[in-house]
Structures are given as C-alpha cells and as structure tokens.
Protein 1
Amino acid sequence: MACREVHAPALSGFGFNMVGPAIIKFGTARQQADLLPKIRNADLWFCQGYSEPEAGSDLASLRTRADRDGDDYIINGSKIWTSGAELADWIFCLVRTNDQVQQQRGISFLLMDLASPGVTVEPLYAFNGKRLWNQVFFENVRVPVQQRLGEEDQGWTVAKSLLGDERLMVSRVAENKRILSLLKEALALQQAQDIQLPPEAEAEIAALEIRLMALETTSLRILSQADAGAQIGAEPSMLKLKGSELVQDQDELLFRLIDYLALPQDTSRGDHPAVTPPWAEYVASGRYHHRSYTIAGGSSEIQHNIIAKQVLGL
Ligand SMILES: Cc1cc2nc3c(=O)[nH]c(=O)nc-3n(C[C@H](O)[C@H](O)[C@H](O)COP(=O)(O)OP(=O)(O)OC[C@H]3O[C@@H](n4cnc5c(N)ncnc54)[C@H](O)[C@@H]3O)c2cc1C
C-alpha cells in the first residue's frame, strides 16, 4: 500500500473519501473493480472538481466543456477552490456535454487522471499562508469515455448524490467534540490560575455541549436510516448547517476564554516551564479557518434553500 506523509486532518475535506459511494451507486462493474480497492487502500486519491470561477452556489451553470471525439472526451475549462489537487492522483469533475438542454440535463460526471497531458494545477493560498486550494486548468485534455460515471448528460444526479454523502460526512461531530474538550481544558487552566472568567462561561459551555449531544444523536439516527436503505432527503443539509455553526460558536468562546494563553512562549531568556498548552497558539488560526465551514460543501444559505424547498415545500 502506498504511504504518504500527510497530516491526517489535512485529508478530511478531500474528495478522495467522497467518490467511493458514488462509484458504488453509479459505476460500471469494471469501474468498481478497478477503482474501489485502490480507494479503500488509499492508493488512489481523488479531489473534487465541481466549483468554477463563475459557478459556485449556482453549480449547474458550469462551463468546463467535454466534447466527444471517438472514444474520448476533450476537456477545456477550469475548476477552482479544488482542495488537495496538489496531493491527489485523480479528480472527479462535472463537465458540460450538452448546451442545448436545460442546464442540469447537459452535465456529465468524469473521473480524470491529473497526470493527463493538458492539466495544470496552480496553488491558491489562504489568509495564513497555507495552500488550501488550487485552480485546475484543462487544455484539450483527453479522457476516455469509459471514465464517465453514470450516463452522458445525467451527471447532475451523480453530483447531487455525492453532495448528500459529503454533507453527511461534514456534520463534524468528532471535530466538535475535540473543540469542546479544549474549551473545558481552557476553563480548567484559567480556574487553576485564579483568572477571573466571565460568570456565564460555564453555562455557555454547557449549552454548547447540549447542542453537540443533539447533533450527535441526530447524526446517528440519520446514518442508521441511511444504512437501512431509507431515502435521505434534506437531512444532510440540516446536519451540515448545525455542525458547522456549532464549530464556529465553540471557536468563538474558545477564542475568548484562551485569551493570553494563545500567545507564543517567549524563550529568548532561556528555558522555563511552559504555561500555555501546545494547542493554544492554533486557536486564532482555527477560528478564522473555520469560517469557511459555512461556505465549503455548499453555503449555509444554499442549505436553507434546500430545506425550505424539500421540507417546507416553499
Ligand atoms: C475551504 C473550502 C474548500 C473548498 N473545496 C472545494 C473543492 O475541493 N472542490 C470544489 O469544487 N469546490 C470547493 N470549494 C468551493 C465551494 O463549494 C464554494 O465556495 C461554494 O459552493 C460557494 O460558491 P462561491 O464561493 O462561488 O460563492 P457564491 O456562489 O458566489 O456565493 C456568494 C454568496 O452568495 C450567497 N448565495 C449564492 N446563491 C444564493 C442563493 N440562491 N440564495 C441565497 N444566497 C445565495 C452564498 O451563500 C454566499 O454567501 C471549497 C470552498 C471552501 C471555502
């Protein structure tokens, strides 16, 4: 099995663990036999090529073209905000195969090798200097037709199914638990040093913990329904909304509570016992980075729209 030195959390948002269920649902027997074992072993990593410079929330307006030429498609266009493209082997991509029909009906879903001639991956950096995304350019890239997932022009169905699975994965229960444990540690550290904390701090932590318990219970309920084969509708959107908002609210309180403990240790005059926990210096960076959670995977406004339409029938 391939072994790559990548910090595990860096992988969490990648497409590499998202495309498997779509291949199980929509792939040919050959695609399943070729790709699923490699994905399971992490020998083959995918990134997600959905967003384009002028197609984010309005994804169906995407313009990257795939023109048929014999047994191949010829791809031209570009994808943006592609997390992990610098590490991935392949990209799963939404492309326009028909511009004579309603937007959603002219899209196909392709699986592409990023090493194909004509693919260029350019870095995009976040506020803290981290290479968080990429822009991927395609210039006359040949992709065999047999690497299409699902029928031609029917890629929107595959795309929506994958987005549902992605949103189920980003309810962020585990991450919220980790932040909650830091909140409790921060509180204990401040109390141990007799620091005067806002009187409502403990009650705020308790309220966040209750929200987390509700999120976890609901996630488990929906996952077991999905496992039993039930049709899942707007539930992933609800989980994504609640999970990402909870991360941001917990971050906000952690940022307030950690206060001076977030300062880097000054060791210029020799060693001394550390007074800050090693995670504290990442609190500010995490707080800003996690603002992206209510955008990535479909913004909160879009999740509200889905719920309004599917649940309330508006
Ligand atoms: C950290 C991160 C990682 C990402 N990784 C990937 C990736 O790997 N692959 C990929 O393909 N994409 C990725 N994205 C892109 C992401 O999917 C888009 O940013 C997202 O869909 C929003 O699109 P946009 O940025 O074009 O914003 P826009 O669509 O331009 O939206 C701008 C604002 O308008 C609001 N808005 C838009 N339409 C409506 C509407 N109909 N109703 C109400 N409000 C609306 C939005 O909510 C938002 O606040 C990533 C984004 C982030 C932040």
Protein 2
Amino acid sequence: MFTKTITTDFFTTIDGSICINTLDTITYRLPTLRKWASISEMERELLEYLWVPESEILSFYRWSEALYHALKLIDIKAKDEIIVQGYTCVVVSNAVLQSWGKIIYSDIDKNTLWFDIKKLEKNITKKTKVILVQHTFGKPVDMQQIMKIAKQNNILVIEDCAHSLWSISWDHHTGTLADFSMFSSWRDKVISSVTWGFLVINNPEYLKKARRMKELLTMPSRTLTVRNLIYNILWYFAYKTYDIFKLGRVIMLISRRCKLITDILSKEEKTCSKTKFWTAYPNSLAYLWRKELAKIDMYTTHRRNIAELYDMNIKTKHWEKVFIEDNNEFMNAFRYPFLLTSHKVQKEFIKYMKNHGVLVWTSWSGTNIAPKWVKAKNAGYKKKSCLVSEDIANRIILLPNHMWVTIDEVMKICKLINKFESKNA
Ligand SMILES: Cc1ncc(COP(=O)(O)O)c(C=O)c1O
C-alpha cells in the first residue's frame, strides 16, 4: 500500500534491539546506572580490541572534544601548523581552529581519498607540528608511510578514525600507530551509542598529562543524556513509519524542532566558533556502546556484502568506482562511495534517485568541507587550494548500506543506476 523509501543517512545502525536496550536503560536500569563501571570497562574493552592494552584512553561527549584535547596535550601554539585533508568534516576544522593552531589543507588522492603523499610532503614546513590523517569512509590509510615521513620531519601524527573502527591495514587496526587517535560512535558512525568520541593516546610521553586531564572533565546534564537516549526510540519509530502517511517524517521534524533530540551540528560548529570542549561521556550511553560493540562483526559483514553487490551489479558509463581493497587491507566498508562524471550529473542523479524513492547520502556531496550547508571559508579553507578534493566532492555519491537495506533493495538501486541516463553527459 505504501511505497517504501530507501534512505541512507538517517538510520545507519538503529534497530529494534537498540530501541529495546535504550528503553531498558531509561526505565528499569536508570536508578542504578550511576554506580556502574560501564565507562572504564568499555575503555579497557576497546583498547584490548584494538590490540593496544598499554595505551591510555579518554572518553568525551563528542569526537571534536577528543581532537581538541589531543591538540591541548601537544600544547599547540599560534605559529604551529596542523596539516588536515582537503576533503573533511567541519568539526575537524573547528577543533583545529579552536586549538590556536594554523590549519593547512592538503589535497587528497582520487583513488584512496587519503592525503596525496607528494602534496603532503610539499606542505610540510619547519612550522608543521601535526599531521592529521583521516581514514575516509573506512578505507585504512597506509600509516607506515605516514609515520616514516613524520619521523623524518619530527612531526606528531594524529589519526582521525571517526569512520574506520574495525578497519585494518598491514595487521594494524587504524588508530594504533600514530601518537594519538580519535574514534567516534556518534549516531551515524560504524557503531552507535548516539554520541561519544574517544581519544587513544599511544605516545607514552603524554600518558601522565592525559590522566590529569581526565579529572577536569564535567558530566553532561541529565537532560542532555536523556535527549540522546530518546533519539534511539524516536528514530526507530520514525523509520518504521517513514512512509505511513509520512508519519515518520513528522516524528523527525517535531523531535528536531522541539529539541527532543540533540542536533547533528550546533550553530557554533557550523561556523567554526564552538569553544566548549570539556564534557565527559555518561554511563548510560557506555552501556549501550558495549551492547553495540558485540554486533560490530555483523554490521561489517553486512556492509561488505552490500559493497560487493554494488561492485558486481552497477554497470553504467556514468559510474567510476572509488575504493579497491588492497591485499594488505581489511575495510569496514563504512560508506559506499562512487564518482559521477560531473557536478551537473551528480545533481541530476540525486534528483533522479529521489524521484524513484531512494535518498542517497548527500552530506559529503557538493562541498569538500562537509556537510554541504557549511561555509568552507569559515573553516579556513581557501577556494581552489585543493582541487582534487573539490572535484571529488562535486562528483561523489554515497549509496545506502545500513542495516535496514536488504539485498532486494540493493538490486533495485543497481537497476535504477544502470537505467540512469544523464542530460548533462
Ligand atoms: C571525518 C570525520 N571526522 C570526525 C567527525 C566527527 O565525528 P562526530 O560526528 O562523532 O562528532 C566526523 C563526523 O561525521 C567525520 O566525518
């Protein structure tokens, strides 16, 4: 009776079991929650999981707080330069700008979406203090190469693993070779506990200072924690009723407008003026995280199977595959990107898919400082300084691959893509 819309970005990991676990957390378990040791147990579990039990870990309310604190531990001064990828997210830029450092955007390689190594080396100066490496969409960067360059130039390395939990390169989990790394389990990430950013400190020189820093963090208010938890329940029902008289869309609109749930990005983050970075991570969300970590193999297998189906079944002249998995890699297949022939074709394609009931992910399309409603100038990005990054942003499409997407839906998407004829080709 109702035609089902296939969505990409609203519901990456949300499902019935998260909804039930959340209900359990805010009802039956709530009175005892504060006494649990969920966060410290979770932190230990994660370090063991990444095979770095000797490292230190700090948990924050958001990922950007983890990056900001890594830069504070390094003691960045105004003259210090921090090299960041030209295709990135505004929260990265905001944390770097707020650390007082100077942000230098360096262009990427088209086939990996990592730094173009030659351009990176050109951008290194005597003032370079940090290279911030990003494992975009789960493709693990060859960190040995980066670490070699950093060592030669006496530079520290930070890994942005927001997309890459469970990706491996040369027998190393991402986030384990650099001096610092930050992971995220924000609600659209590899696994979700609605929010959470964690900083892993691998460089022993900073361990003591990091432990002192931990004591300065403040807990988020109860209201903020409840707004995060409620997201799982509201969004579950929104997904289930998305096409039933558009009820799901109404639930999403009301919960956003009435601030029942938290915003994806605050106004301050969008304009790179967020300055508060001192919030810790609450126990109730840590409890959910541990439940989700147990499912990471299932999520990864699902995403990898879907990626394989897209690889095998998309056959069109407008299409260019981005990632090829090397023998030395294991990709978590967090996102499935491909490139169209031009920006005009990209716009036309997004509209075409929408008209056929498929909402592709557009946050990283049309701008190299994502999401698309952000002004790159505010993030300290000078137009045309990273041409490959801009070109990729203008041609990229990210296809649905979350847990709700079925094989039949993937085949429907492939058929639609193969039938797509561009007026602008
Ligand atoms: C590359 C990258 N780094 C960091 C982040 C920040 O993660 P969070 O959403 O947890 O704040 C994002 C957000 O999407 C991102 O895309």
